[in-house]
């Protein structure tokens, strides 16, 4: 789980803990906390300019958080294959040589 638009580092972890408790109680899933993206006006400006925050505002707090998250994600182990549900969809998005879904506008 990635906590988005958090006010500070403690907010992301606290949000995750509350969300994880609810999902553990009512759903058969286990969540992991991947990180957080801070609330940042640079994101709104980048959206208005139709650019990524990394392109338009690379030194902004949100851009730095996205870079950190990408760096951590790059070290995550690659699963042998999808175990079900949404993973089948995600596998089709990221596996080389597979047809990618086409966005419908």
Q: CA-to-CA gap between the ends?
A: 27 Å
Radius of gyration: 16 Å
Question: How many runs of DSSP E, i.e. beta strands?
Answer: 2
Q: Mean of the pLDDT scores?
A: 83
Share of residues in helices: 40-55%
Strand content: 5-15%
Structural class: mainly alpha
Low-confidence stretches: none
Q: So, CATH architecture?
A: 3-Layer(aba) Sandwich
**Given the C-alpha coordinates, what overall shape results?**
globular
Oligomer: single chain
Number of discrete helical segments: 5
Largest sheet: 2 strands, parallel
The CATH superfamily title? P-loop containing nucleotide triphosphate hydrolases
The CATH topology = Rossmann fold
* Order of helix and strand elements from N to C terminus: EHEHHHH
Top CATH class: Alpha Beta
Question: TL;DR?
Answer:
The protein has 105 residues and is mostly helical. It contains five helices and two strands.
Can you walk me through this structure?
- Helix 1 links the parallel strand 1 (2-6) and strand 2 (35-38).
- This protein has helices spanning 9-26, 41-48, 53-56, 61-73, 86-94, and strands at 2-6, 35-38.
- The chain has a two-stranded parallel sheet with strand order 1-2.
- The chain has 105 residues and is mainly alpha-helical.
- The protein has one domain: Rossmann fold (3-Layer(aba) Sandwich), CATH 3.40.50.
Short key terms for the protein model shown above:
two-stranded parallel ribbon, 105 residues, Rossmann fold, 2 strands, mainly alpha, 50% helix
């Amino acid at each position: 789980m990635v906590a988005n638009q958090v006010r500070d580092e403690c907010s992301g972890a606290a949000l995750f803990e509350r969300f994880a408790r609810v999902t553990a109680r009512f759903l058969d899933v286990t969540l992991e906390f991947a990180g957080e993206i801070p609330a940042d006006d640079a994101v709104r400006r980048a959206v208005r300019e139709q650019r990524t925050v990394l392109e338009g505002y690379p030194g902004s707090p949100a851009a730095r958080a996205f870079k950190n998250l990408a760096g951590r994600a790059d070290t995550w182990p690659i699963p042998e294959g999808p175990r079900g549900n949404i993973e089948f969809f995600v596998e089709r998005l990221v596996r080389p040589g597979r047809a990618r879904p086409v966005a419908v506008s």
